[in-house]
């Protein structure tokens, strides 16, 4: 059984969730064939409302990185400028990359930092007032 077929069984019980199933199919397919493994990253849960995404980017400079959020897709990309170094061995990759993360509509990107080769993006869950639990007064 392949990874994609693992999530097909509940579709018969859910109506209107096609976008979610398609995203899960894509995520499982990419994780199985390892096409999206660079750069390595961590996702850290600090609390139910606060998360961090860390990317290991040794050899990159802040000026060569770009972080964008558009339509619920956090895109982190980078490329290193040409250098005139003759490498006898180059084990630290500085290749061009594009890493994407699907962000829930209630998650805001609060900021980012780049320290010692580690890019950290701060995320917070912010539930809009209209979607917060409604207290019903019992008469």
Largest sheet: 4 strands, antiparallel
Low-confidence stretches: 1-5
Helix content: 10-25%
Name the helix and strand elements from N-terminus to C-terminus, one letter apiece.
HEEEEEEE
Give me the Rg, rounded: 20 Å
Q: Output the CATH topology of the largest domain.
A: Immunoglobulin-like
Overall, the morphology is elongated
Q: Between the first and last Cα atoms, what is the distance in angstroms?
A: 54 Å
Average pLDDT score: 82
Strand numbers in spatial order across the main sheet: 1-2-7-6
* Strands, count: 7
What is the CATH class designation of the largest domain? Mainly Beta
Strand content: 25-35%
Structural class: mainly beta
Level-2 CATH architecture of the largest domain? Sandwich
Number of helices: 1
Number of domains: 2
Task: Kindly describe this structure.
The model is unreliable at 1-5 (pLDDT under 50). Strand 1 (41-45) and strand 2 (50-56) form a beta hairpin. The chain has one helix at 18-33, and strands spanning 41-45, 50-56, 65-70, 73-78, 97-102, 107-115, 118-125. Helix content is 12%, strand content 34%. It has a four-stranded antiparallel β-sheet, with no helix packed on it. The chain folds into two domains: 1-37, no CATH class; 39-131, Immunoglobulin-like. By secondary structure, it is mainly beta. 6% of the residues are buried.
